[in-house]
Amino acid sequence: MEKRYSEMSEFELQQEIRQLNEKAKKAEQMGMASEFAVYERKVIMAKAYLMDPSQVIAGTTYSFVDEQSTFTVEYMNGRFAWGYRNGSKEIEGIPISLLKI
Question: What is the CATH number of the domain that holds 18?
Fold first, then answer.
């Protein structure tokens, strides 16, 4: 039975990220786009557990790691920041690992 990311140590999370990156690379090479996307999302979640959620402050606007858009945090719930992308009216939750902190 696999451990949850919340139960893993920093070392275990780093190992998991390496393994997921390898699986993602293989899936991409084999042309399995949906499997590749699943592994990429798992990497994003594992990286969120390596971060300190107290560094994300409600009311602050952050840039995304890989995008030009911004995200204004309304509140935190675990490893997810809830707020608005580019001033949108629709609230969404994203893993904190997607934000430049």
Answer: 1.10.287.880
Of the chain, the percentage scoring pLDDT greater than 70 comes to 99
Measured distance CA(35)–CA(27) in Å, rounded: 6
Q: What is the mean pLDDT of residues 63-84?
A: 94
Please state, in angstroms and as integers, the Cα–Cα distance from residue 59 to each residue in 16, 73, 76, following that order: 32, 5, 11
User: What is the residue range of 23's domain?
Assistant: 5-48
- Residues 58, 22 share a domain: no
Kindly report, residue by residue over 14-37, the tens digit of the pLDDT: 999 999 999 999 999 999 999 999
Report residue 2: phi and psi, to 5°: -80, 150
- Give yes or no: residues 14 and 36 share one domain: yes
What pLDDT, on a 0 to 100 scale, did the predictor assign at position 87?
Answer: 78
What is the C-alpha separation between 98 and 96, in angstroms, rounded? 5
**Lookup: tokens for 12:** 């275990």
